[in-house]
């Protein structure tokens, strides 16, 4: 074979090799791997939005160090630490149910966590308001099926005490989407409506006792009050009134509705304070059905 014939044969082979090598390279760049299909959350028939081109920025030089930085546990395992979970707990105050909250590390056993926190009892700030718990330690859910949580609750005490204890469990567990009803000691399943009479006229969901608050403060909860009017005032450590406000619940007299009242005040030094949520009497204008929540007023400029 002549030299020119050899060159004609080699050139196509080299071109084919280069093309095959290009097809085998990874389709990735500075923005990460290129998408090969629309995300599962995309609507049927929709296209993924184009990814904008971002100019690469030079990496600043790393200062000299004697030892390399220690990677975090999440980075070394390739997983992100789960966010904490906030749960609602229903304690007893003056023979009625009142809520508070706890923020704890995330867990798959949320019902066990909620019942353990409920049995542990109120914090110091919560106990100062009269909150207490009637649930002993060790109570656990044995089964959750078809929206019904099954468990056994000690039946000690008089009927009123036992009913309050059951109400604590029912109102605490039914905050979770997987639990609509609770079956206690093999009886018929019950829900929150079966214990609605154990709520005070005004329930304060937030703020909770001991919480650090600042202006503007959002006060939330439920109420069944005259003309659905809920009033709020904020007191400083000396008992002086620093803010007032009122709002309307979503349901009028004779029915319970949710409310949301926003109040603001001038900057104060950080100190103990009190948020009072109350109803104005239709008879003499006095404050009635007052729920007092001790808080910490955050200082401001």
Automatic annotation (TrEMBL):
<dbReference type="InterPro" id="IPR019606">
    <property type="entry name" value="GerMN"/>
</dbReference>
<feature type="compositionally biased region" description="Low complexity">
    <location>
        <begin position="39"/>
        <end position="57"/>
    </location>
</feature>
<protein>
    <submittedName>
        <fullName>Gmad2 immunoglobulin-like domain-containing protein</fullName>
    </submittedName>
</protein>
<dbReference type="Pfam" id="PF10648">
    <property type="entry name" value="Gmad2"/>
</dbReference>
<dbReference type="InterPro" id="IPR018911">
    <property type="entry name" value="Gmad2_Ig-like_dom"/>
</dbReference>
<feature type="region of interest" description="Disordered">
    <location>
        <begin position="29"/>
        <end position="81"/>
    </location>
</feature>
<feature type="domain" description="GerMN">
    <location>
        <begin position="111"/>
        <end position="193"/>
    </location>
</feature>
<dbReference type="Pfam" id="PF10646">
    <property type="entry name" value="Germane"/>
</dbReference>
């Amino acid at each position: 074979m002549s030299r020119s014939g050899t060159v004609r044969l080699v050139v196509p082979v080299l071109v084919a090799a280069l093309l095959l090598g290009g097809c085998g390279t990874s389709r990735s760049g500075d923005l990460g791997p290129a998408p090969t299909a629309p995300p599962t959350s995309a609507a049927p028939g929709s296209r993924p939005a184009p990814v904008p081109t971002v100019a690469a920025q030079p990496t600043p030089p790393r200062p000299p160090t004697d030892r390399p930085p220690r990677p975090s546990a999440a980075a070394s395992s390739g997983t992100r630490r789960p966010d904490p979970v906030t749960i609602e707990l229903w304690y007893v105050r003056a023979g009625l149910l009142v809520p508070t909250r706890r923020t704890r590390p995330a867990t798959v056993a949320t019902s066990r966590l909620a019942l353990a926190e409920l049995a542990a009892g109120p914090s110091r700030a919560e106990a100062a308001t009269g909150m207490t718990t009637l649930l002993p330690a060790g109570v656990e859910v044995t089964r959750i099926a078809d929206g019904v949580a099954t468990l056994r609750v000690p039946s000690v005490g008089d009927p009123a005490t036992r009913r309050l204890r059951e109400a604590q469990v029912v109102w605490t567990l039914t905050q979770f989407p997987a639990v609509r009803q609770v079956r206690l000691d093999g009886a018929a399943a019950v829900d929150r409506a079966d214990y609605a009479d154990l709520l005070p006229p005004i329930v304060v969901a937030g703020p909770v006792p001991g919480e650090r608050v600042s202006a503007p403060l959002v006060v939330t909860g439920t109420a069944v009050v005259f003309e659905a009017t809920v009033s709020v005032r904020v007191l400083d450590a000396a008992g002086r009134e620093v803010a007032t406000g009122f709002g309307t619940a979503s349901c009028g007299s004779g029915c319970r509705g949710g409310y949301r009242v926003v109040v603001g005040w001038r900057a104060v030094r950080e100190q103990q304070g009190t948020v009072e949520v109350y109803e104005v009497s239709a008879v003499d204008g006095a404050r009635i059905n007052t729920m007092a929540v001790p808080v910490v007023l955050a200082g401001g400029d």
